[in-house]
Write a structure and sequence with these properties.
Layout: E1 4-7, H1 13-26, H2 40-43, E2 48-54, E3 60-69, E4 73-81, H3 90-104, E5 109-115, H4 121-130, E6 133-135, E7 147-153
Parallel strand pairs: 4-5
Antiparallel strand pairs: 1-2, 2-3, 3-4, 5-7, 6-7
Length: about 160
Amino acid sequence: MAISIAAETPLQDDVRGLVARLNDHLLPLSPLEFQFKMTVEQMADSDTTLFVARDDTGKAVGMGALKAHGPELGEVKRMFTVPEVRGQRVGKQLLERIVALARERGMGSVMLETGTGDGMAEAHRLYTRYGFAPRGPFLDYPDSEWSAFFELKLPQEQVA
């Protein structure tokens, strides 16, 4: 299946549908106070770039966002692929676009918070295979058994 990925506005019905599916997936995995969800309206802010993966019919099958926290730190937010495309490297392709944008912007690292437990094993595998390393909490995330934190350092190329 051919997948195309582009930066798009989150204020679209099919993206709202992906967000709803992601929220439904996350709901039983941890208490609500430990679910740090961005709404589509929050994702539409100028500090966030949303990438949407679409199949060859144009159907939205995945998403992932880069939220900038100043010039040095990017955060991966709202990573999700529909179950029908899991195992087809759509998540990896989304992550590649997010990290490429962070590099392009000169960010020193990309971090993320995700859930723990069986429902998050695939996500953890994706991040660690890509090179993200476990770390402690960052920004204002609380340290809890419900969250796992990862970081990918982005060394900047030296200009001679």
